[in-house]
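Sample entry as discussed:
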Amino acid sequence: MFQDLRHSNISKFQVSEFILMGFPGIHTWQHWLSLPLALLYLLALTANILILIIIKQETTLHQPMYYFLGILAVVDMGLATTIMPKILAILWFSAKAISLPECFAQMYVIHCFVAMESGIFVCMAIDRYVAICQPLRYPSIVTDSFVIKATVFMALRNSLATIPVPVLAAQRHYCSKNQIEHCLCSNLGVTSLSCDDRTINSIYQVLLAWTLMGSDLGLIFLSYALILHSVLKLNSAEAASKALSTCTSHLILILFFYSVIIVISITHSATMTLPLIPVLLNVLHNVIPPALNPMVYALKNKELRQGFYKVLNLDNKGN
C-alpha cells in the first residue's frame, strides 16, 4: 500500500527544468571542446555574413542560384545560433539548467532549421536541373518570383510539419529524471526521460524524417540523375565538364548533410554502449555545415571568389 502511494506521488510530480549534462562519458574534460566549437561557430557566422555581403554588393551575383545560397546562409546562421550559445554556456559556466518551455522551443527551432536547410538544397537542385537541362527556358522558369514562392513554401512546410514534435514532447509526463545526456534538447533525448509511453513521439519522428527528408533526398537524386543523363549526351567534353563543375560544390554539401543524418540515426541504436558518438555527431552536424557551406561554394565558384577578393580589397589577378 505504501509503495503504491509513493509511486502515485512520484507519478504526479512534474519536473520544472531539465539539466543538459553535455557530452556523455567525458564530463570531466568536456570544457576543452569549447575552443574548437567556439571557433567553428565564429567561422560559421563570419563566413555566412561575408557571403551575404558579397551577394548584396556584387550585381553579377543577383541571380536565383545566389539568392538560394544567401537564404542557405541565413538558415545556417540561425541553426548554429540556436544551439551554440547554450552549449558554450554549459562548457564555460556550467549553465546546464534549461526550463521546459525553453527546451521545447529549442527542439522546435532546431527541427525547423534542419528541415529548411534540406528544403533549400532541393530548391538549389531544381535550379541546377533547369539551368543545365532546360537552359533556354531557365530565365522564364527560375525567376525572382520563383525564388520567393519556393522559399515561402519551404518555410511554411517546415514550420507547420515540425509543430507536433515539441507539442507531443510537452504532453509527456516528466516525473523523476531530469538529466539529459546531451548538449541540446533533442526529441529522443528529452522524451526518453518521460514516465509514460512515448511511442507516438518516436512514430512521428520517423514519419517526419521519411516524409520531409526522404522526399527531399528523392527529389535531389532525381534532379541530379536527370542532370547526369543530360550531360552525358553532350558531344563536347569541355561543355560537360563545365556543366558538372557548377554542381560539384552543391553535391559535396548534400552528401555531407544527409550522410551525417543517416549515421546519427544508425548510432542512436547504440546509445547504451557508445552514447558519446550520436551526441557529438548531432552537435557537429548543426555547426560544421554552417561553417563548411560558404567555404566550399567560395572555393568552387569563380564569381564568389572574385566577389570575396573585391570585398576584402585583395589582389585577384589570375583568378
Notes: Confidence is low (pLDDT under 50) at residues 1-10. Strands lie at 17-20, 97-99, 179-180.
